[in-house]
Design brief:
By secondary structure, the chain is α/β, with parallel strands linked by helices. The strands form 4 sheets. It has a 5-stranded antiparallel beta sheet with strand order 4-3-2-1-8.
Length: 960
């Protein structure tokens, strides 16, 4: 018979699928993986009983021999049959076997047990989930940390904790350092992944030094963009109405901020389940405590056999790790007493057990016990008042430190400056030096990995390394005690700066891989900045370090951090750095960040212009293009259209000098949107069509590329409608708001805004409302306040269009001041036009005309705009409504002339209809002649609102 194993080893073909058990149901129960539910509610079941149930269910209707069940549920152990009977009895009790005629498990005397209830495969009790009112598109959850191949002694804890989470929603897994909280949390995250349809987010706060960054770290993990100091509200808005599991690991050193955020999530997002791990309670509403106790070990002073001592989880963990480290696997009865003594001294602390077990292969069991005797005088069971992260494992780590060689000690201490994972390149940069050649540093690293002081995991073709949090704290204190902390921290900061700077210059092919590598340095970038600006030894690194790190912050959409650090660095700039590459980088970053975080301020424009001045002086073409592009966006947002075409033409010249295909396509997109807003639709279409020819190159760019986020399709849809191609405009919109929507969060907002405007021109107000809802949710989720005001404006337009005039006017009265306060004028003229029309409908003609007149004056002062023909037409209609036909005709004729000049056939059609209505009322001969000629120029879109209205006018007998 093939031996069965609950966690490893060979399995028979009948039971090989147990670990991948599909959802099955029997009676009121459903079973999936290791989760048993009754009527949709979790049922608590011990680990052994769960193993027995899984085995019997997978072989339902078949008699499973007792020895086979024992081999599976008690793998590698010699136990009496009475243990099996006890657990089967427990299982029957949980299932209610025998009550009300229900039968599940039958004992076949002399043979074994059989699961006799009908089993329905592929079924599962559905978990209750609150309705999702506006989830939007949700980015995939990031990969979970790798779970241990075999977790020892915590299976029951995982099962019970899963049931507690589903019942209580908010549980803190509390215990001392090294007890195994992260191990249990990781296993539970994997175990519950199916229960949450893969929506499990695991956030590790261990590398985080600044508690103020807790909320932005959570936001970044959820795929949100951080534009302000406290994104908590954006996080709540994102999570409200969703269902997912949020694991907050290692909270003790940032506990105040985590507690506040977790409590707010618990209150406002009932679909979110929270698991926190910490050495102390969060002490907030909703929190339930699950105390993770030490692994049970054998009683001291009692003679036990090898089989008996292996029944204790602490011993099993020790033996499992010792065998993995090279110790023999045949545990004898003579070893049992020593094992019991060792595990007793390690007090069931998982990390201490693993550290000791890893060295048994070098020293042997008895020698290890003696070493523990010598080191336990340090009283390693720490006090609550002991320094952070050394409350429990300080002495164990001190002992481990005493077992390694001098080179390993040096490298071990130096690597503690890394805040997160690090690479071999990082090891050499920080740990190697004149007194520590590279080969010795690499050899020391290998030994530290072998001795479990450094963990490692594969990363593609290479590996990444990490010190466990408690180990890192211990090593960092050793480094400080030795007087080397300042020098090694300086090396670390220099390494971060040089690595990020190299990534800024590299324009190789593997953009995604490079961005991922740069993003992995986020924790170290933050740590390096904090150290450099807090210590005199870092003074010389402050400016280049900030310049390198803020580029990374922009790439990761951490614009508030980018603004803070670029501003701090510019404030200490000396004469040697003025006008150089670092001032260029810092000014560019500051201007970009201020544009989105400080309401398009004058400071943003000043920073961008200063950066452009330096870039041109240095002949830095890529940054010249980038700054021209950012200035162009600034002018678009602030409504200063006269500057658009000159900056775009300048950018096109620079792109041609660079010779980059994506850059040239990006310049064409920039020219297209500039001509469009400035009022030359023919030129706009020509340039956008050219940009589309190399659209694939544009779509392949990453955030570091100077032409990133140039999307020709977004403005092209509006240009096509204005040019008289409504059907083509609609075809262009559909991908932008569907599968091909931009991934960049700001460009996604722009796509929704501009698509909503086209739907409005087409008269499709249901689609406008749909775009508005998506825009409002997206802007709220990412903290993009100005776009929330734009969404309010579009909503008001829809209300006015369907006759809810008063409410629409009220909304516009609230939205327009917000846009003006943000200096965000791009959409203000269209909303002002609707406000004036609504006011006139409500009988407030004078105020309506005044609003429109002020809007036209403001647009004229900035050089005119694409919608000036429409503004003139509306004013003409209002003048006619007020009994001033001469002024009305002057505005309408001017609108027609300007429409033709701009190449905007659709604006001309509207103006011709308004003028025809005026001339019909004036009894002018052939009032529809010009309208008929304009209508005849259209080749498509005949079922859109404007063309339908024009056709009706032309077909009305009274108008002929």
């Amino acid at each position: 018979m093939t031996e069965l194993s609950a966690g490893h080893g060979p399995r028979s073909s009948d039971t090989a699928a147990i670990l991948d058990l599909d959802a099955v149901a029997f009676g009121p129960f459903s079973l999936r993986s290791r989760l048993l539910e009754k009527d949709g509610l979790p049922v608590r079941l011990g680990s052994r009983a769960m193993d027995i149930l899984r085995l019997l269910v997978i072989r339902a209707g078949e008699v499973v021999p007792k020895d086979e069940i024992l081999s599976y549920a008690w793998s590698g152990l010699s136990v009496e049959e009475v243990s099996l009977r006890v657990h089967v009895a427990e299982l029957r009790k949980v299932l209610g076997d025998g009550k009300d005629g229900a039968r599940y498990i039958t004992n076949i005397p002399g043979r074994g047990y059989c699961f006799v209830a009908p089993v329905r495969r592929g079924e599962r009790a559905e978990l209750a989930a609150p309705p999702s009112h506006a989830p939007g598109r949700t980015a995939p959850a990031p990969p979970l940390p790798r779970r241990l191949d075999r977790m020892v002694g915590r299976e029951d804890a995982v099962t019970e904790l899963a049931a507690r989470l589903l019942r209580d929603r908010f549980v803190t897994l509390r215990g001392p350092g090294g007890i195994g909280k992260t191990t249990v949390a990781t296993a539970l995250a994997h175990e519950m992944c199916d229960s949450f349809d893969g929506n499990v987010h695991f956030l590790e706060f261990g590398p985080l030094k600044d508690a103020a960054l807790v909320a932005s770290t959570v936001a970044a993990a959820l795929g949100l963009v951080v534009h302000h100091d406290d994104p908590s509200a954006s996080i709540i808005n994102f999570l409200r109405g969703r269902r997912l599991l949020l694991v907050l690991d290692s909270c003790e050193h940032v506990i105040e901020e985590v507690a506040r955020l977790a409590e707010n999530i618990y209150r406002a997002a009932p679909g979110i389940v929270i698991l926190a791990t910490s050495r102390e309670s969060l002490l907030v509403e909703g929190e339930q405590i699950f105390e993770l106790v030490s692994l049970p070990g054998p009683p001291q002073g009692t003679r036990l056999s090898a089989g008996e001592v292996l029944a204790y989880p602490a011993v099993r963990l020790f033996v499992d790790r010792a065998v993995a480290a090279g110790h023999r696997d045949d545990i004898t009865d003579e070893d049992a007493e020593v094992l019991a003594r060792i595990c007793g001294k390690l007090d069931g602390i998982a990390l201490a057990i693993e550290l000791a077990a890893a060295r048994v292969g070098l020293y042997g069991l008895r020698e290890m016990a003696a070493l523990l005797d010598n080191r336990l005088q340090l009283e390693w069971r720490g006090r609550r008042t002991a320094p952070p992260r050394q409350q429990t494992l300080g002495a164990t780590l001190d002992w481990s430190f005493g077992l390694i060689g001098e080179s390993e000690r040096i490298v071990f201490q130096r690597l503690a400056v890394f805040a997160g994972h690090f690479t071999l390149k990082g090891v050499i940069a920080v740990a190697a030096g004149a007194e520590m050649p590279e080969d010795r540093a690499v050899e020391a690293l290998e030994q530290l990995v072998v001795k479990s002081l450094i963990s490692t995991q594969p990363d593609g073709a290479s590996r990444r390394y990490r010190l466990l949090d408690a180990t890192r704290a211990y090593a960092l204190q050793k480094l400080a005690d030795g007087g080397q902390l300042a020098e090694i921290a300086r090396r670390h900061a220099l390494y971060v700066q040089c690595t990020l700077e190299a990534g800024m210059k590299d324009e190789g092919s593997n953009h995604a891989s490079r961005l991922q590598e740069r993003a992995s340095l986020l924790a170290d970038a933050r740590a390096a900045l904090q150290w450099a600006y807090a210590n005199d030894e870092g003074a010389g690194l402050r400016v280049p370090l900030a310049g390198s790190c803020t580029r990374l912050f922009v790439e990761l959409n951490l614009l508030n951090e980018a603004r803070i650090w670029s501003d701090r660095a510019l404030a200490i700039l000396d004469e040697a750095d003025r006008g150089g590459a670092w001032e260029l980088e810092l000014q560019s970053t500051l201007g970009h960040a201020l544009m989105f975080t400080e309401r398009n301020s004058e400071q943003a424009e000043a920073a961008l212009r200063r950066g452009l001045e330096i870039a041109e002086a240095l002949s830095d073409h890529a940054n010249t293009f980038r700054l021209l592009s950012r200035l162009n966006m600034f002018y678009r947002r602030t409504g200063r259209y006269r500057h658009l075409v000159p900056t775009a033409l300048h950018a096109e010249r620079i792109a041609r000098v660079i010779g980059d295909t994506a850059g040239i396509a990006g310049s064409k997109a920039l020219l297209g949107v500039s001509y469009h807003l400035a009022g030359d639709q023919a030129a706009a279409q020509a340039h956008l069509d050219q940009g589309l020819r190399d659209d694939a190159a544009l779509r392949g760019t990453q955030p570091a590329h100077f032409a990133y986020s140039r999307t020709p399709q977004i403005p092209l849809a509006r240009v096509l409608w204005l040019r008289g191609f409504p059907d083509r405009a609609l075809e262009c919109i559909r991908p932008l708001v569907g599968a091909s929507a931009p991934h960049d969060v700001v460009m996604h907002c722009i796509a929704l805004c501009w698509s909503a405007s086209v739907f409005g021109w087409l008269g499709d107000w249901l689609s406008v409302e749909a775009m508005t809802d998506r825009l409002a949710a997206h802007a709220s989720m990412h903290g993009l306040g100005p776009y929330e005001a734009v969404a309010t404006g579009f909503r008001a337009q829809s209300m006015i269009a369907r006759g809810e005039i008063a409410d629409g006017v009220d909304l516009l009265r609230s939205a327009l001041p917000r846009l003006h306060a943000d200096r965000y004028e791009l959409y203000a003229s269209a909303f002002a036009a609707d406000l004036s029309r609504g006011l006139v409908t409500l009988g407030q003609l004078t105020e309506g005309i005044q609003v429109l007149h002020e809007t036209i004056l403001r647009v004229e002062q900035e050089g005119g705009a694409f919608d000036m023909p429409e503004l003139l037409r509306l004013r003409g209609e209002l003048e006619a409504h007020g009994g001033n036909p001469d002024a009305a005709e002057a505005d309408l004729v001017a609108s027609i002339s300007l429409s033709e000049q701009q190449g905007a056939l659709s604006w001309r059609l509207r103006a011709e209809m308004s003028l025809a209505r005026l001339r019909v009322r004036q009894h002018v001969q052939n009032p529809l002649e010009q309208l008929a000629q304009t209508y005849a120029r259209f080749t498509e879109g005949f079922e859109t609102a404007d063309l339908i209205a024009a056709r009706r006018m032309l077909n009305e007998p009274a108008a002929r």
